[in-house]
């Protein structure tokens, strides 16, 4: 049986633990520090953060307080939209490293694509930002590079010009928002898909269909959502600041959702979408 220690090999050979600990919406300060420390001590080895979350210093503090060796951990951050372009991305990367108190990252992502609705030259902007990530990768300051919230249009444009392909696309996925086509597009190209908000930021947890399926397996709806991601070969990034939830969200390797239930979950009507469409965002 797989466990949280299982690693997935990315296109460039880097290995990523199969569940990440999410920190979006985790308040800065002791809450973030304690959550990250608790997660690592409970067995998580993969921490996902971003400059815009405003908690990198506290996340870094949690990492150092955990007492786990740096090389045992997989740490991701992301360059924010205000820092698109080669030069600004280089500066933003240095700042993230400094805040996290680390000397390299395992994964660095473009947080959101520049999109056609906001920029005529969106392709050039994304490529310019990507060039910075490629340079950081060549300089071995980051072990793998990828994108977040890119749709197939954004990926296509980037990949025709990229020297190194993005190894990850981190997108919103949860029951009620399965992103089947985009997952298929990425997986066909060996781009691994990470699921942000695998619990729909909590919005899917009261759904009666999910509740009845979870009951059948004697699991919580949160565990069902996380397991559903794993069985779709996705890398879920559940967030919690609550110790017993942090622990229970990793207890998902002792059951298997059967094919029928997988399909039912994947085909649920729309539920819990954040409303954040990369073609429509205004930030
Ligand atoms: P909290 O952080 O207060 O524990 P997502 O991972 O989709 O972003 O969802 C995160 C939200 O879901 C947070 O509000 C978090 O609350 C809540 N959450 C995380 N794990 C569980 C769980 N096992 N049961 C209920 N709620 C959970």
Protein architecture, described:
With 283 residues, this protein is an alpha/beta fold. The chain has one domain (7-201, 234-242): NADP-dependent oxidoreductase domain (TIM Barrel, Alpha-Beta Barrel). The chain is built from ten helices and ten strands. The protein has helices at 30-42, 56-66, 86-100, 122-138, 152-161, 180-188, 208-216, 221-231, 243-248, 259-266, and strands at 7-9, 15-17, 21-22, 46-48, 74-79, 107-110, 145-148, 168-172, 192-196, 234-236. The strands form two sheets. The chain has an eight-stranded parallel beta sheet with strand order 3-4-5-6-7-8-9-10. Strands 1-2 form a two-stranded antiparallel ribbon. α3 packs across α4 (122-138) and α7 (208-216) crosses α8. The longest helix is centred in the middle third of the chain and has 17 residues, at 122-138. The model has no long low-confidence stretch (mean pLDDT 97). Bound molecules: adenosine-2'-5'-diphosphate (A2P). Adenosine-2'-5'-diphosphate (A2P) is lined by residues 22, 197-202, 205, 220, 222, 238-242, 245, 248-249.
List keywords for this structure.
single chain, globular, binds adenosine-2'-5'-diphosphate, 283 residues, alpha/beta, two-stranded antiparallel ribbon, TIM Barrel, 10 strands
């Amino acid at each position: 049986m797989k466990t949280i220690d299982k690693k997935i090999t990315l296109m460039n050979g880097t290995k990523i633990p199969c569940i990440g600990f999410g920190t979006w919406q985790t308040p800065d300060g002791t809450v973030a520090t304690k959550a990250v420390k608790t997660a690592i001590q409970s067995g998580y080895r993969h921490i996902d953060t971003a400059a815009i979350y405003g908690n990198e210093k506290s996340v870094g503090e949690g990492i150092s307080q955990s007492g786990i060796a740096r090389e045992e951990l997989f740490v991701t951050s992301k360059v924010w939209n205000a820092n698109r372009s080669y030069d600004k991305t280089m500066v933003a990367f240095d700042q993230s490293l400094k805040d996290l108190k680390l000397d390299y990252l395992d994964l660095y992502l473009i947080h959101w694509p520049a999109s056609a609705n906001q920029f005529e030259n969106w392709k050039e902007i994304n490529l310019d930002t990507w060039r910075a990530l490629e340079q950081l990768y060549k300089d071995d300051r980051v072990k793998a590079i990828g994108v977040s919230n890119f749709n197939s249009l954004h990926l296509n444009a980037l990949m025709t010009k990229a020297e190194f392909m993005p190894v990850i696309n981190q997108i919103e996925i949860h029951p009620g928002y399965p992103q089947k086509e985009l997952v298929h597009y990425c997986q066909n190209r060996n781009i691994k898909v990470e699921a942000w908000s695998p619990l729909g930021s909590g919005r899917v947890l009261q759904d009666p269909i999910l509740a009845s399926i979870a009951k059948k397996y004697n699991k919580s709806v949160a565990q069902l959502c996380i397991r559903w991601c794993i069985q779709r070969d996705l890398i879920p990034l559940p967030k919690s600041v609550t110790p017993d939830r942090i622990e229970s969200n990793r207890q998902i390797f002792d059951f298997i959702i059967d094919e029928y239930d997988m399909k039912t979950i994947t085909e649920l009507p729309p539920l819990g979408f954040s409303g954040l469409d990369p073609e429509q965002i205004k930030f």
